[in-house]
Design a protein that fits this description.
Blueprint lengths: L2 E7 L7 H14 L4 E7 L11 H4 L3 E2 L5 E2 L2 H9 L8 E3 H13 L10 H20 L3 E6 L9 H14 L4 E8 L2 E2 L4 E2 L2 H12 L6 E6 L5 H11 L6 E5 L7 H7 L2 H8 L11 H11 L3 E9 L9 H13 L2 E9 L8 H5 L4 E4 L8 H13 L4 E4 L1 H13 L7 E2 L9 E5 L14 E9 L4 H6 L3 E8 L1 E3 L4 H7 L1 E6 L6 E6 L5 E4 L14 H18 L1 H8 L1
Parallel strand pairs: 1-6, 1-7, 2-5, 2-6, 7-10, 10-11, 12-13, 12-14, 14-15, 15-23, 16-17
Antiparallel strand pairs: 3-4, 8-9, 17-20, 18-19, 18-21, 21-22, 22-23
Helix pairs in contact: 1-3, 1-9, 4-5, 5-6, 11-12, 12-18, 14-15, 18-19
The structure holds glutamine.
């Protein structure tokens, strides 16, 4: 039978529950346990797919095509094991399921209520994950903060599970904030006491309290938290601010958090955590031998969470190359012919980001033209790839008004178009090409060189596609479809000739980059940027490479 660790949050949001959950899971995995992490989100959207990035950051997509919370990205990046739809459940999904069952008459005339019907469905979703995949330990993170009205059914479901399974099989880890008051020169425990009281009012009490703090917790403070929150002293864990999120597993190991979880769950320690690869990554990350500047061209660049997986993939690929990647945010809406050169000329590589809709699209196209003509390494992802096709059509093929029909329904040159089977869809949620699809790479391509194999599988989230009617014309003029879906013939990767690195991917490679398996295209892109940067310092080399 699987054991459960519930991760709740107190005092304030943004304390990093996802990172703490991922770190504990990493340590348990490194001790030889089979673990997974699940996120329960108390909002009413069925999934975050319809949420604007300003609301909820990036939408992370799993192999099975679920549009999920960005915390699942952290889980995968830490654990290097794929998650699925079952790893992210929202209140909306729970209610939708229960209401559908009610309409089918499955409740046999009973009044359908939050308790027991909603809480039973929450419990079913939690335990289903473990039984389906044979996990030793399931970590379940509850979104939001204890005390929120909408998280009450989740707290109640955990209370019931703990009662049913016993405290040896089911523990609660509460992440909280211990603020430091500068004027008083003191750490304050009262907000934590209050948040634990709120939990107690609902019949639940934490077994472990992880304290985010800017100052070290001394023994007195730890004792005070333990005493007033009713946990053992070794169950009070200090989580000091870390230099990088990837330090957190090691910090938590130093605090013995994994061992304490196992002890409370009555599980053996098995072995010391094997973190050889993880530590190797951190050493490289912290000791770069060179540096590159990459421009991230997008319309949400002011919002760090909107491109979370891309930024993390840069960190993984940078470490792999022992190179520090400085990301320069470039707002695509603000790019024009006037400022193009001053904005882009100092860069060693340009990544044009995914996105939806018209805003900022012309800036993206200008940036791509600049990268193409000046032979600056270019990486286009999803909409970024589609823009590279539009740019090539306009400026190389001479189709001046070429566009995607997403931006201009009546363009005479619909080089990016919606596929027939997508045309009649009016519902928004879950109706894109979503999840993992196979792709076959041409062996004479930069992409093949990067992956080192011709058959790959990558995750998608889009409606529009390269319009194959124009493929011949593109290929004759030098833009090649080097990756195709073997079943449908859809173009998945484009490259151009005579360029140090120019790759446009219809899929989202960033979603599969992890600490222990950095994504090959990101690794190659950073390598190309490093080469470009050293050629810049030695201009004669630039000339010879351009010839
Ligand atoms: N808007 C484009 C489409 O739907 C690209 C989507 C994306 O970049 N994820 O096809």
């Amino acid at each position: 039978m699987a054991k459960y660790i519930f991760v709740t949050g107190g005092v304030t949001s943004s304390l990093g529950k996802g990172i703490i959950a991922a770190s504990v899971a990493k340590l348990l995995q490194a001790r030889g346990f089979k673990v997974t992490i699940q996120k329960l989100d108390p909002y009413i959207n069925v999934d975050p797919g319809t949420l604007n990035p300003y609301e909820h950051g990036e939408c992370y997509v799993t192999d099975d095509g679920a549009e999920t919370d960005l915390d699942l990205g952290h889980y995968e990046r830490f654990l290097s094991t794929p998650t699925s739809q079952a790893n992210n459940v929202t209140t909306g999904r729970i209610y939708q399921y229960v209401i559908n069952k009610e309409r089918e008459g499955a409740y046999l005339g009973k009044t359908v209520q939050v308790i027991p019907h909603i809480t039973d469905e929450i419990k079913r979703r939690i335990t289903l994950l473990a039984t389906k995949h044979d996990y030793d330990i399931v970590l379940t993170e509850i979104g939001g903060t204890v005390g929120d009205i909408e998280s009450l059914p989740y707290i109640e479901a955990i209370r019931q599970l703990q009662w049913e399974m016993g405290n040896d099989n089911c523990i609660v880890l509460h992440l909280t904030l211990i603020p430091y008051l500068k004027a008083a020169k003191e750490l304050k425990t009262k907000p934590t006491q209050h948040s634990v009281k709120l939990m107690n009012e609902n019949g639940l009490s934490p077994d472990i309290i992880v304290c985010r703090t800017e100052e070290p917790l001394n023994a007195d403070i730890k004792r005070k938290i333990a005493l007033f929150c009713n946990v053992t002293i070794d169950g009070v864990i200090e989580a000091a601010d870390a230099e990088t999120i990837y330090d957190v597993p090691l910090n938590m190991m130093r605090e013995n958090l994994d061992a304490i979880c196992l002890e409370k769950l009555k599980l053996p320690l098995r072995q010391e955590p094997d973190l050889k690869n993880w530590k190797g990554f951190l050493t490289k990350l912290k000791n770069p031998k060179s540096k590159v500047k990459i421009g991230l061209v997008g319309k949400y660049v002011e919002l760090q969470d909107a491109y979370k997986s891309i930024l993390e993939a840069f960190i993984h690929a940078g470490a792999m190359n022992e190179c520090k990647v400085e990301v320069v945010n470039i707002h695509s809406e603000h790019l024009d012919n006037e400022n193009l050169k001053s904005s882009l000329s100092g860069l060693d590589g340009i990544l044009v980001a995914p996105g939806f809709g018209n805003r900022g699209i012309e800036g993206k196209i200008l940036a791509i033209q600049y990268a193409r003509e000046n032979k600056i390494p270019f990486f286009g992802i999803c909409l970024g790839m589609q823009c590279s096709v539009i740019e090539f059509a306009r400026n190389v093929l001479g189709f001046e008004t070429a566009n995607s029909t997403e931006m201009d329904k009546h363009t005479p040159y619909p080089v990016i178009d919606i596929m027939e089977d997508q045309k009649n869809i009016i519902q928004m949620g879950g109706t894109m090409r979503l999840g993992a699809f196979d792709c076959e790479l041409n062996i004479n391509s930069k992409s093949y060189e990067a992956y080192g194999k011709p058959y790959i599988s990558e995750r998608h989230r889009h409606r529009w596609e390269f319009n194959n009617t124009y493929l011949d014309q593109f290929e004759k003029a030098g833009m090649k479809a080097v990756g195709k879906n073997p079943k449908t013939g859809l173009v998945e990767v484009v490259e151009i000739e005579n360029h140090p690195f120019y790759v446009g991917a219809q899929y989202h490679p960033e979603l599969k980059s992890t600490v222990e398996n950095p994504h090959p295209l990101f690794v190659s892109f950073i390598k190309a940027a490093m080469d470009y940067s050293s050629r810049k310092k030695n201009p004669s080399a630039i000339e010879s490479s351009a010839n």
